[in-house]
Specification:
Layout lengths: L1 H28 L22 H13 L4 H10 L4 E4 L3 E2 L4 E7 L8 E3 L9 E3 L2 E7 L7 E8 L4 E8 L6 E4 L3 H6 L4 H10 L24 E4 L4 E4 L2 E5 L3 E4 L5 E3 L4 E9 L3 E9 L2 E8 L1 E2 L6 E2 L4 E4 L10 E8 L2 E3 L1 H6 L5
Parallel strand pairs: 2-8, 9-11
Antiparallel strand pairs: 1-3, 3-6, 4-7, 5-6, 7-8, 10-13, 11-12, 13-21, 14-20, 15-16, 15-19, 16-17, 17-21, 18-20, 21-22
The structure holds zinc ion (ZN).
Length: 341
């Protein structure tokens, strides 16, 4: 807007100058019949119309007809992004979207209506607001509507949840292990009482630094989202990946964050949860030993314990999971690249 006004002003003053010089020329010299007066180049008005730096950019663009690079960046800087952007229009079940809101100061003023069953929470990040929206692996392929509104915008999007096949895995586990863990009401109650609440709390700073690293070098024995059948009984889908590794292998923090859970519980054994902020967390189950405490900050790659076989486990391995709020997402997504906010 400012640039357009400036160009108009420059054009107007140029025209005035031109007419002034031409008029002066005509008066002093007189015109020969059939001869057009050839005026001098218009002089630059001495009237201050804008700060010098901005005026220079506008005049350059006007005179040369070629927009110089400097004025391109100036113009781009003046274009304010507004409204909301989604990181993608398609998402796998078990994936997540990044929502970015521009030109809104108050995260509370932004509301998002969507069918994915979690509360979208925005946080200030640099010059905008950002939120992570997970899509649980149980969502059927199809089109889903997201409507977002703030003080300055109201927008709707159609997001396509893609088709993804999750294989089935049959497990044979000692019945005593099953009974003391996934079949045990006290083990489940303990998990829901102690672990579940941490899923709904998160820091307001994005603490992750780059892509997540594989917490142990090991073979993946169970993939993300697999339908599990334990001793012939269909159970829960697998919320993470299992990495088989020898007992005692160091387990590393997949990224920087704050330890929000570190304790032995019946269902998942020696368990660590690291909060990376904005609802993003990583989970480490079945460890033999723990070397971190709740409340502690850990750096990406820092040891947090060792591989074990505690809780619902058939042998030494690490169950590694990534969640956005209370929804598990495919860890491969954050191994590939850090969530861009
Ligand atoms: Zn597992």
């Amino acid at each position: 807007m400012k640039i357009r006004w400036l160009l108009s002003a420059v054009a107007f003053f140029s025209l005035l100058s031109y007419l002034g010089v031409w008029g002066y020329f005509m008066l002093t010299r007189g015109a020969e019949p059939g001869e057009l007066p050839v005026p001098d180049p218009p002089f630059v008005s001495s009237a201050p119309i804008e700060p010098a730096s901005e005026a220079a950019g506008g005049e350059q663009a006007e005179v040369s007809g070629v927009v110089p690079e400097s004025s391109v960046s100036t113009a781009a800087d003046l274009v304010e992004k507004q409204g909301i952007e989604l990181s993608a229009s398609e998402v796998d079940p078990g994936g997540f979207l990044v929502l970015t809101v521009y030109d809104e100061q108050d995260p509370q003023a932004v509301t998002v209506d969507h069918p994915f069953g979690v509360t979208v929470r925005f946080y200030p990040v640099r010059d905008h607001l950002a939120a992570l929206l997970p899509v649980k692996y149980t969502y059927e392929p199809g089109q889903y509507l997201i409507t977002a509104s703030g003080e300055n915008f109201l927008e709707s999007f159609t997001v396509t949840v893609k088709d993804r096949d999750f294989p089935t895995q049959e497990l044979v586990v000692e019945q005593s292990t099953v009974d003391s863990t996934i079949n045990s009401s006290s083990a489940n109650e303990e998990y829901y009482a102690r672990v579940q609440p941490t899923k709904f709390q998160s820091g307001d700073q994005a603490l992750w630094e780059g892509a997540f690293l594989l917490p142990v070098e090991g073979r993946v024995t169970t993939e993300f989202g697999m339908q599990r059948i334990t001793n012939g009984v269909p159970g829960e889908r697998h919320g993470g990946i299992d990495l088989a590794a020898p007992l005692g292998t160091p387990v590393l923090a997949a990224n920087t964050g704050r330890v929000v859970f570190a304790d032995l519980i019946a269902l998942t054994g020696n368990t660590v949860c690291i909060d990376h902020g904005l609802g993003l967390k990583s989970w480490y189950y079945h460890m033999d030993t723990l070397s971190v405490e709740e409340g502690q900050m850990v750096q990406r790659g820092e040891p947090i314990g060792t591989v074990g076989s505690t809780g619902f486990s058939t042998g030494p391995h690490l169950h590694f999971a990534v969640s956005v709020w209370n929804i598990y997402v495919d860890p491969q997504l954050v191994f590939d690249e850090a969530p861009a906010i």
